[in-house]
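Dear colleague,

As promised, here are the two records you asked about, laid out in our usual form so they can be pasted straight into your sheet.

NAME FIELD: protein one
SEQUENCE, THEN STRUCTURE:
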Amino acid sequence: MGFRHRPTSFCTRARPLHNLQLWPLLVLFLTVLVPTTVGKSNDVDPYLELRCRCPNIVTGIPLSRISFVNVFRPGVHCANVEVIATLKGGEKTCLDPNAPAIKKIVMKILEGY
């Protein structure tokens, strides 16, 4: 009695039709995995852009129009402190971080309210 390699069912012959049947599944799998984001992206990571976000600064905006404030520290993207306010209408405006009222807002944000 000798040990002889017995071919299994998947090794007996090449099955090209079986391989062709797997291609649509592979294509479908890859299209699901690869995100298809074509066009403009409104949700851009601010740290990917290596430039200042605030080319123009507004000084005289009433605090009652502001709904949300973001403060960005200086870094590799910009050497300035940037304060971006979202107004109640949804518009975003850059504020002067050296203005006395804005300094108070920034200090409260940094202190945690």
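NAME FIELD: protein two
SEQUENCE, THEN STRUCTURE:
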Amino acid sequence: MNPLSDSDLAAAELVIGALDSRLRLQIIQRLSEREHFVHELVAGLGKSQPLISQHLRVLKRSGIVNSERRGREVIYRLVAPAAADLILAAIALHRNAPTEEAAATIINLPRGTEPEGDAGAGQIAHAPAAALSGEPTLDPIPDPAPTPPTPQSFS
């Protein structure tokens, strides 16, 4: 991969940041099917109008959606279908990522090769118990930047 320019990185950061919300992902999913009035998104997603509008502003600022006023209402459409593809790629990446359990090495120690008194020989070494729990075991790396304000629900 060629080095990316600062402007390319800033564009990627803007788009990826806009996708950093489950509600915005749901909005993109709906807009990938057809354009929607704000009130349709409010009813379909079960969230308040101010919350939906706030998320739509983020998506619009990133260039993923645009809007058009129709009388007293505003209709939104997906103008970057690649955003929906990016969501599907993220899902595929997650599904295909090796789990700690799958990545753990299983060692089968053959019997008869153990030193005298080594009672554990011949046993299979397994992944740590934490990997078998099904819970994510990755420790998140803290972001050194201040935490941005999160959208608040008014419902």
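A couple of things worth noting about protein two: The domain at 7-96 is CATH 1.10.10.10 (Arc Repressor Mutant, subunit A). The chain has a mean pLDDT of 80.

Best,
R.
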